[in-house]
Write a structure and sequence with these properties.
Elements (H helix, E strand, L loop, with lengths): L1 E4 H6 L1 H8 L4 E5 L2 E6 L5 H10 L2 H17 L4 H19 L9
Parallel strand pairs: 1-2
Antiparallel strand pairs: 2-3
Length: 103
């Protein structure tokens, strides 16, 4: 893992982006970490990264965990039926299939 100041990253962004392919680059300001450059190699990885930092998605996960603790969850088959049903609704509502915008 590399560590670089904002000034260094600003001056040599292309080099640090290339470095991020080997591992995260921590960007610092006044000696404190303020950002991390992480290489993205495919769309699935990008989706996971964006979701991992989405407050809305994290709230959904927290609510789901709470519901599972309270109710014991739902059977595996029912879960996948609900996922497929929800995907079909989203696809037809937006008029297309494929990646959806994260809001």
């Amino acid at each position: 893992m590399k560590i670089a100041s904002v000034a260094d990253v600003k001056a040599r962004l292309s080099a640090y982006l290339k470095d991020s392919e080997q591992g995260p680059v921590v960007v610092t300001r006044n000696g404190k970490a303020v950002a991390v450059l992480v290489a993205v190699t495919n769309d699935d990885e990008l989706d996971r990264l964006v979701l991992a930092h989405s407050p809305k998605f994290q709230a959904l996960l927290d609510d789901s965990r709470r519901q599972i603790k309270e109710t014991g969850g739902i059977p595996h088959e029912q879960f996948w039926r609900e996922v497929k049903k929800g995907h079909r609704k989203a696809s037809t509502k937006n008029g297309h299939r494929g990646r959806q915008a994260i809001r």
